[in-house]
Automatic annotation (TrEMBL):
<feature type="transmembrane region" description="Helical">
    <location>
        <begin position="366"/>
        <end position="386"/>
    </location>
</feature>
<feature type="transmembrane region" description="Helical">
    <location>
        <begin position="536"/>
        <end position="554"/>
    </location>
</feature>
<keyword id="KW-1133">Transmembrane helix</keyword>
<keyword id="KW-0472">Membrane</keyword>
<dbReference type="InterPro" id="IPR027463">
    <property type="entry name" value="AcrB_DN_DC_subdom"/>
</dbReference>
<dbReference type="Pfam" id="PF00873">
    <property type="entry name" value="ACR_tran"/>
</dbReference>
<feature type="transmembrane region" description="Helical">
    <location>
        <begin position="340"/>
        <end position="359"/>
    </location>
</feature>
<feature type="transmembrane region" description="Helical">
    <location>
        <begin position="470"/>
        <end position="497"/>
    </location>
</feature>
<protein>
    <submittedName>
        <fullName>Efflux RND transporter permease subunit</fullName>
    </submittedName>
</protein>
<dbReference type="InterPro" id="IPR001036">
    <property type="entry name" value="Acrflvin-R"/>
</dbReference>
<keyword id="KW-0812">Transmembrane</keyword>
<feature type="transmembrane region" description="Helical">
    <location>
        <begin position="392"/>
        <end position="413"/>
    </location>
</feature>
<feature type="transmembrane region" description="Helical">
    <location>
        <begin position="434"/>
        <end position="458"/>
    </location>
</feature>
Length: 604
């Protein structure tokens, strides 16, 4: 293959240009994140059973859904939580690598099979099945600077005008609102209900009957007389909108002609739909929405798109309302990627300097400098096809691969330079002869290095997910380096290098460097020879080093991922559970055949 590209350097350039174009086109589309998706995919199921206790919610809603979830493929486990406000959340966790879209469809089908067994109020509220995320990408908050809007007004505005716009942004997987919309609240007085012999079901039935959208039909619709020339749709106002209209709902008509209205037994007002939580920002009431990144989303691009969308929407905010982003994880991600990119540039600069000092020719140095970016572009293109992301681990793999990428090119250049210096051949003839000598060595080096990193891609569990992208990025970079060492590098050597005379000696700085380097190499050789003569002592030192390494490996603290300061402090405060004390067992009167233990009386 090398001989083909030596005689056709234009072909080598064309292939390299295609690799560069593929990398440049893939770079804007590849996801950017701090780490790979470590956590297994999750699907969340949420609904509400207002007015029910947590135990009742589990027995009538959660348990039937859980029984159907057991038949979903690739499901590892599920977790259900219910609170006193009637909210229910079920998180289903799947095996790593499961197609999240297919899993969501399977869960949706499982929920559909059990809907007929759920309480009617739960069916009316709806059961939401959506992709879950481990944490929030960012939190957007609305506040009223002048206090003209209360928390309920802010919540109603953010639900109606902001959440939908943010949910449609590319890369946003879920928008969770921490604010309630306005709602018609009916506060029933139990004493009045008892005095009028009414129950809460009577109130609910009356509201449903008198607050409903009714299809009244059409006047003059077919079949109609031939003389009928017009048809008209009958509009009937069935839904109530104001507090006064709800107050006038008739709960019961008495035989004496009197009526019992809703205002007689309840207080009606426009309030918040849910009073279970409050949001504050800098000690001011706020309405917040937490945004979670989708599995294929680009964190940086999504964050910028959210900021741009909020800037666009802010022009239409009511007077005194302003937005802010109090929590955003992308600056840390951007800083991490930026530091790695700087390290990548520094590594390439150091490699260039070292190569120039040792190769001592700018032409020899430029060839590896051209080859390395091409190999990295090819790696980025493969990363996009493989579904990888630009993260700390893949960037670290590229930084580490730079030193390996230049090795293949240096091996080719040094051998070509040696043949030209010793035999006085032209660059083309020297390159042809050099590639016949080292082509097998380049393939062998590549296979050995790939064999070192490939096993890391098959680690099971979360460890395998973390290191799979690192290992495969290394392997792909090494393979591109070997391909370029057999194609572009020999083509550049044959056309770019200049002939040199046999037994050419350097002068000046490079001559001084070569002489000192040769003396250092000679002293190192003598040191190795002395160490070989003292094999016993060397083996003892080797064993001590191995023991020290093992001791340090055991004593060093372990962790899943290093803890890094992201500039946020998140606290979770939980109150203790109430305790119920019981009195000792008391004697009770019972029959001689009774086998039940005496009851334990609770002590408040």
């Amino acid at each position: 293959m090398a001989q083909l590209f030596i005689h056709r350097p234009v072909l080598a350039w064309v292939v390299s240009i295609f690799i560069v174009l593929a990398g440049l086109l893939a770079l804007p589309n590849i996801p950017i994140a701090q780490y790979p998706q470590v956590a297994p995919p999750q699907i969340s199921i949420s609904t509400s059973y207002i007015g029910a206790a947590p135990t009742e919610i589990y027995e009538s809603v959660a348990q039937p859904i859980e029984e159907q979830l057991n038949s979903v493929q690739n499901l590892i486990y599920y977790r259900s939580t219910a609170d006193s406000s009637g909210a229910l959340g079920i998180t289903a966790t799947f095996n790593p690598g499961t197609d999240i879209a297919k899993a969501q469809v399977d869960v949706q089908n499982a929920v559909s099979r059990v809907e007929s067994l759920l309480p009617q109020s739960v069916v009316d509220q709806g059961v939401i099945v959506e992709e879950a995320s481990a944490g929030f990408l960012m939190i957007v908050a609305l506040t009223s600077a002048d206090g003209s809007m209360d928390p309920t007004g802010l919540g109603d505005y953010i639900n109606r005008n902001v959440v939908g716009e943010l949910s449609r942004i590319d890369g946003i997987g879920r928008a969770q609102v921490f604010a309630s919309e306005r709602s018609m609240r009916i506060w029933i007085d139990p004493d009045k209900m008892t005095g009028l012999n009414l129950s809460s079901s009577d109130v609910v039935a009356a509201i449903r009957a008198q607050n409903a959208q009714v299809s009244a039909g059409r006047v003059g619709a077919d079949p109609n007389p031939i003389s009928q020339q017009l048809t008209a749709t009958v509009l009937l106002k069935g839904q109530l909108n104001t507090v006064e209209e709800f107050n006038n709902i008739v709960l019961r008509a008495n035989p004496d002609g009197s009526t019992v209205r809703l205002s007689d037994v309840a207080t009606v007002e426009v309030g918040s739909e849910n009073y279970a939580f409050n949001s504050h920002l800098n000690n001011q009431p706020a309405a917040m929405v937490g945004l979670q990144l989708s599995t294929t989303g680009n964190a940086l691009a999504a964050s910028k798109a959210v900021e741009a969308k909020m800037e666009e929407l802010s022009r239409f905010f009511p007077a005194g309302v302003q937005f802010s982003i109090p929590y955003d994880t992308t600056p840390f991600v951007a800083a991490s990627i930026e530091k790695v990119v700087h390290t990548l540039g520094e590594a390439m600069l150091l490699v260039f300097i070292v190569m120039f000092i040792f190769l001592q020719n700018i032409r020899y140095t430029l060839i590896p400098t051209i080859v390395v970016p091409i190999a990295l572009c090819g790696t980025i293109a493969v990363m996009l096809v493989a579904g990888f992301s630009v993260n700390v681990l893949t960037m670290f793999a590229m930084v580490l691969a730079i030193g390996i990428l230049v090795d293949d090119a240096i091996v080719v250049i040094e051998n070509v330079e040696r043949i030209m210096a010793e035999e006085g051949l032209s660059p083309l003839a020297a390159t042809q002869k050099a590639m016949t000598q080292i082509s097998g060595a380049i393939v062998g080096i590549t296979m050995v290095l790939a064999a070192v990193f490939i096993p890391m891609a098959f680690f099971p569990g979360a460890t395998g997910i973390i290191y799979r992208q690192f290992a495969l990025t290394m392997v792909v970079s090494i393979l591109f380096s070997a391909f370029l060492a057999l194609s572009l590098t020999p083509a550049l050597c044959a056309t770019f290098l200049k002939p040199i005379s046999a037994h050419h000696e350097r002068k000046g700085f490079f001559g001084w460097f070569n002489r000192n380097f040769d003396r250092a190499t000679e002293r190192y050789s003598h040191g190795v020879q002395r160490a070989i003569r003292r094999r016993g002592i060397m083996m003892v030192l080797y064993v001590l080093l191995v023991v020290a390494m093992g001791y340090g490996f055991i004593k060093l603290p372990t962790g899943f991922l290093p803890n890094e300061d992201q500039g946020f402090v998140i606290s979770d405060v939980q109150t203790p559970q109430p305790r119920v004390r019981t009195a000792p067992t008391r004697c009770c009167i019972r029959s001689p055949t009774c086998m039940r233990p005496c009851p334990r009386s609770p002590i408040p």
